[in-house]
Design goal:
4-stranded antiparallel beta sheet; alpha/beta; homodimer; 15 strands; 9-stranded mixed beta sheet; 12 helices
Chain lengths: 412, 412
């Protein structure tokens, strides 16, 4: 494969990303496409036309995944793709790059007359972000069989709208193929994605070959102190929920740093009640998000954070409660696919490194189905899930070329 | 005065408080009477009828203060009173006790045939809580001349309604007397109030003789870090605004405890953005509320807190901003009135202690006009500004008796 001369159409790649970036763009620059929304459907429709234009055979399945096939025959397919839905006010690359990039990669392979032994299927996964329904990575959970199609159809969003009803407005025509892959149907899966962190940029590298997707524990936390008058309550008679929660937040950071090994911990939701400027906080509601690339490390992180919760409250007479929101096991990637990505990077004359994905991706579920891995490109300033999410055009192009070379080897 | 046999009508005292507690009562038990609202007017109307029933001569002034006079003559008046407006979902004693208690005290004096040399005036101050207009202690600010009547009339609430317009719906009949007291018009002022803290209860004391009302500095604070993906951003590449703000919150507590001398510091408003469970906080908006009973101590507290703000941000690459919302100077009480309260407590055979008021009251402005002090009764559990605000019936009665004896001495 290394002998192929792959030329990505960078203009087309950037133009497609630009079209998608305008669908759901808010006044402050962020892009909001909730799963199965009008904006999501518009972006999907654009990609469907692009697939048709690229000569792919387009189908769609029971949960709304869109698939475009390059090549034919009865061999197990090589799949690649990503998602079009976004977090609220998100960026333009998280998801779209892995779809637009896949189509551009396939087109580049077509231009050099590459004829795959195995068909290559570009997939638009439905509902990867968890921002509308109770869970994310919905499309890949259906394909891998991680979640039953019926259970997915029964998901309900915050306004009481079921996934099934939302899907009916999505605009697919014709019959829906089964979502769940048959045994032996998929040969391998690879996803091109922005890193969403700052490691590649910090080390001036072009490509990350992902060796594992970190697992996740999210816990809902409550700190219950006593609201009281800010002026009339002496410091030593307070049960300040904010101070207990602040102590905990700093301790969580300390624990994650001490454990190392790719463990990260974040308190992103943190609400203080009643919130009056002259009232001592009586209650804090928070969510902590813990991640680690290995199950044992994730459990150790979780155990120590739970212990710290009690300690942070006790010292101030603030009671604490916690409940598990979700636990997702870490997903190791396939060594053969990782090595294929590394060979592809070398053939494209770009520097790569093996790394962990701290973020969850559809690849996590695809890895339960078939040999899988991911290709990361650098995120400028390490920014993601925000309007500033960006990657240099040359880096996007290099990522596409590495994807094309990886697909070519996997499909041969 | 100590020879008087004062008998407070406890049944009447509790019944009046109960009537007021039902005006503006919400479904969760809290009482909401915003200044000059329908509920505030209803409570005020009830007190007006009570004043008339108690034989007081009722007048009202340009800003809506209601006044009921006991006794007559040209001598400078002894004033006492408090407010009827509440914080949102507040308690039943903060304010009403100082009005109902004053009427019951005057009635008790009347029953024993006490004839004051100086008239005693019971005042219902308008708008003490700052929860509707831009400022609180409005009525006392007008009487003391701290704020011009025109400036008060021009105050606007959050919905754009002016104080002047709101006042026109308040239901006063007949001419309005000038609000601002003439020179020499007021001989002394005393206010009966719940402590709103837990010191009296902790020391099993009945009465607090307030020696100073703490001054206040409130600052708006911003912590500006960088929102980013919770999974993909390594711990060492983060600029987490929540962690910077947490460090600051704990440091503020430490500074207040270290300074002592009645200094207290609270961060009651604390909002974290964007607030997604899987997004590193990029921004925190908070308000810190600093109080101290002496100007030099308040300045020292403020200086050290401002210095801590910069330090908390720098360590994490989080920038910080602050702006002054308000500074109110501490108000020392009058030694002669304080001593009068102590004598009254002794005559009533109840234990008292000198203490600071951490909360601001109308007495702060009255002290600019005439010798003033406050009588505190214990707050059960130190709770206030909440539905749980409570004081034992015997303690309420004892507070009224001490007020009656204080008024009797001041008016003689």
């Amino acid at each position: 494969m290394s002998s192929l001369t792959i030329q990505i159409d960078r203009t087309r790649l950037l133009a497609d990303l630009e079209v998608l970036a305008e669908i759901g763009r808010g006044s402050e620059g962020g892009i909001t496409r909730r799963a199965l929304s009008k904006e999501d459907a518009a972006a999907r429709n654009y990609m469907k036309q692009r697939m048709v234009g690229a000569g792919l055979t387009v189908t769609h399945d029971e949960v709304g995944n869109l698939r475009g096939r390059f090549g034919s025959g009865e061999h197990a397919v090589v799949m690649t793709g990503s998602h079009l839905d976004t977090v609220p006010a998100g960026g333009r690359l998280d998801g779209p790059l892995g779809i637009v990039g896949a189509i551009c990669a396939v087109e580049a392979l077509g231009r050099v007359g590459f004829s795959p032994k195995r068909p290559v299927e570009v997939v638009v996964f439905v509902g990867e972000e968890g921002s509308r329904f109770r869970r994310g990575t919905i499309g890949s959970a259906a394909i891998s069989g991680h979640v039953e199609v019926e259970a997915i159809h029964a998901l309900v969003d915050g306004e009481g709208i079921s996934f099934r009803d939302a899907l009916s407005t999505y605009g697919d025509e014709g019959p829906r193929r089964p979502a769940r892959a048959r045994k032996g149907e998929v040969h391998a899966f690879v996803e091109l994605h922005v890193e969403q962190g700052g490691l590649l940029e910090a080390e001036a590298l072009d490509i990350g070959a992902v060796t594992a997707i970190a697992g996740l524990v999210q816990r809902q936390l409550s700190f219950l102190g006593e609201a009281n008058h800010a002026g009339a309550t002496p410091m030593h008679l307070r049960h300040d929920a904010l101070l207990a929660a602040s102590t905990f937040a700093l301790e969580v950071e300390r624990i994650a740093r001490e454990l190392g090994g790719g463990a990260v911990a974040t308190i992103g939701k943190f609400e203080v009640f009643p919130g009056g400027k002259n009232i001592i906080p009586g209650r804090v509601e928070a969510i902590c998000d813990l991640r680690a690339p290995a199950a044992a490390l994730l459990s150790a992180l979780d155990d120590r954070v739970c212990a710290a919760l009690g300690t942070a409250g006790q010292a101030r007479g603030v009671s604490t409660r916690e409940s598990l929101l979700q636990r997702v096991e870490p997903g190791p990637m396939d060594e053969r696919v990782i090595a294929t990505i590394e060979r592809a990077a070398a053939a494209a004359h770009v520097k790569s490194k093996r790394m962990i994905s701290g973020a969850i991706h559809d690849t996590l579920h695809m890895a339960e189905l078939c040999p899988s891995a991911m290709i990361f490109v650098p995120s400028t300033g390490g920014r993601s899930h925000c309007p500033e999410e960006e990657t240099a055009p040359e880096a996007l192009e290099r990522g596409c070329e590495v994807l094309a070379r990886t697909l070519a080897e996997l499909a041969s």
